[in-house]
Predict the 3D structure of the following.
Amino acid sequence: MHNTIQPKVTLVGAGPGDPDLLTLKGVKALAEANVVLYDALANEEIMNHAPKTAIKIFVGKRIGAHEYSQDQINQLIVDNALTYGNVVRLKGGDPFIFGRGSEEIEYAESFGIPTFVVPGISSAIAVPAYQGISLTKRGVSESFWVITGTTSDRNLSNDVALAAQSSATVVILMGMSKLSQIVSLFQKESKGETPVAIIQNGTTPQEKGGFGTINTIQEVVAMNKLSSPAIIVIGEVVKESSKLKGFYEEFILSDIA
């Protein structure tokens, strides 16, 4: 019986949280899964696209409660593909944006297992968009940086200091625990008045945000009790958002007063 099993691994990006932001290709891949290995998804409704008969294994990492190490996840992917055939590895956002998807693909391929990738909508782009924030805008921002706030050695990425020197929009994921360091780096570049948006649980019903400038954002976070998972967006495009324009106009007027 086992000779007829065709192992296959498909990495699927689940998107940023809103279950409707899963791609059609992702839906089709899930519908054909024999096994789904899934992360701590912002919305587990996405799992409904997998067959009821599919084996579903939670392999997500939550702060302080790692179910599996990365090496164990890699091994689970391979073992399940060889035993059951079609494995879908479901990861939040896009699997290749700070998702360690490339490591999982490389490991599966080292066993000769065919692999496929279904890109997902990254929270780095979708979460600001839900607030009407366009990361690039003609005459305002020509580029954007997407940076991890916390590197694998638990430090703030050195790229944040470089980004603070540029005129680009800066999007920082996993940076809430490093917010004071981020603020200091931007203040060092005389960017204290630069608009900042922090959006927690973006694209989900639990979404909440805080808006201000580099100089005020820490107070805003404390006042609104914002915490992870959240995205930090720094740049002039924040105040260009049609949703936030009124807030920033008022903000500037109260500053003048």
Observations:
- The chain has a mean pLDDT of 92.
- The longest strand covers residues 8-13.
- The chain has nine helices and twelve strands.
